[in-house]
Write a structure and sequence with these properties.
With 336 residues, this protein is of the alpha/beta class. The chain folds into two domains: 160 residues, Quinone Oxidoreductase, Chain A, domain 1, CATH 3.90.180; 133 residues, NAD(P)-binding Rossmann-like Domain (Rossmann fold, 3-Layer(aba) Sandwich). It is built from eight helices and 17 strands. The strands form four sheets. Strands 3, 4, 5, 8, 9, 16 and 17 form a seven-stranded mixed β-sheet that branches. Helix 3 links the parallel strand 10 and strand 11. Helix 2 packs across helix 3. The termini are close together.
């Protein structure tokens, strides 16, 4: 099978081609697993975290990619809930404990980091973590829902928002543009405020129904009950805390933060940013229930992810474009 492999780690700016194209043996599903013929795979900021060592793979080379859409090509022994030909999605969670808090379990294995993922023509996955996809979504539309959407859904749930309370989104990339649409459906009376450096992203947010959109350092026209931060930087955290109302919650939806602007934390004021029971909560991974629930809600809301597609051979270009920021929606590799 054709695949794009991560061979070494380092700053992306020093790695014009972090992934190399290879021909690998076709994987064979073990008992309890299915073989998936990959149609598309989303490109995620977490791949940048892997490449640059913030969440490094335990071994190299590895095939990255964890927003995988494809069809079941073969069944391992003891698989009864899926059939050859079923269309399925695979997210960041490749396998875990199966408990309600499996996203926090030491048994958690990440697709495309701990095991080979979807930047390839074929991959294997335990059948319990291959999720059937609603027919309403095309392959490229379904891909970003499997991570950007699912982890965004988890972050939205952790906000503990009531309908009518104002919500903020800091950063407006693949995840936030989906969260905005999910939030408008689930909380139709809540005004949504978007903070983004890129003017085009602010305009995109308004097109999708944001009540207000401004620069990361601006103050929203009202104090916010909750804010979801999807950026890799620290300055937006400080700015978001200043936009929270008393008792408000900042939910950080990022697997790691970069150290480039860590000195921004020196600007934290206890009185301005933390006092009056403001709180910070992080998001860690997703559960398979998050995938299923997000897909169901997205289908109910008739959500339409905005995607830009690239061929598999252009995975390096897609990663560099993602790192530069800007643009609309999500990036997806067309494979099958």
């Amino acid at each position: 099978m054709k695949a794009m492999c991560l061979d070494r780690l380092g700053p992306l700016a020093e790695l014009p081609g972090p992934l190399s194209r290879r021909d690998l043996p076709d994987p064979v599903p073990r008992a309890g697993e299915v073989l998936v013929r990959v149609a598309v795979c989303g490109v995620c900021h977490t791949e940048l975290d892997e490449i640059e060592g913030r969440t490094p793979p335990p071994r190299l080379p590895v095939v990255p990619g964890h927003q995988v859409v494809g069809r079941v090509a073969a069944l391992g022994d003891r698989v009864t809930d899926l059939a050859v030909g079923d269309r399925v999605g695979v997210g960041w969670i490749w396998q875990s404990s199966g408990a309600a808090d499996e996203n926090l379990s030491p048994k958690f294995l990440a697709t495309g980091r701990d095991v080979n993922g979807g930047y390839a023509e074929l991959m294997t996955v335990p059948a319990a973590y291959a999720v059937p996809l609603p027919a309403v979504f095309r392959d490229a539309e379904a891909a970003p829902l499997l991570c950007a959407g699912a982890v965004g859904y988890r972050a939205l749930r952790l906000c503990e928002l009531n309908d009518g309370e104002p919500l903020g989104l800091t950063g407006f990339g693949a995840s936030a543009h989906l969260v905005l649409q999910l939030a408008r459906h689930r909380y139709p009376n809540s005004r949504i405020h978007v903070f983004a450096r890129d003017r085009g992203q602010r305009e995109f947010a308004r097109e999708l129904g944001a009540a207000w959109a401004g620069d990361t350092r601006e103050r929203a026209p009202e104090q916010l009950a909750a804010i979801i931060d999807t950026t890799p930087a620290w300055q937006p955290v400080v700015e978001a805390l200043a936009n929270l109302r008393p008792g408000g919650r900042l939910v950080i939806n990022a697997i790691r933060k970069q150290d480039d602007d860590k000195d921004a934390l020196l600007g934290l004021s206890y009185r301005e940013h933390l006092w009056l029971e403001r709180e910070v909560k992080s998001v860690a991974n997703v559960t398979v229930a998050d995938l299923r629930d997000c897909l169901a809600l997205a289908a109910e809301a008739r959500l339409r992810p905005e995607v830009t597609t690239f061929p598999l051979a252009a995975a390096n270009a897609a990663l560099h474009e993602l790192a530069r920021g800007g643009g609309r929606g999500a990036k997806v590799l067309q494979i099958g």
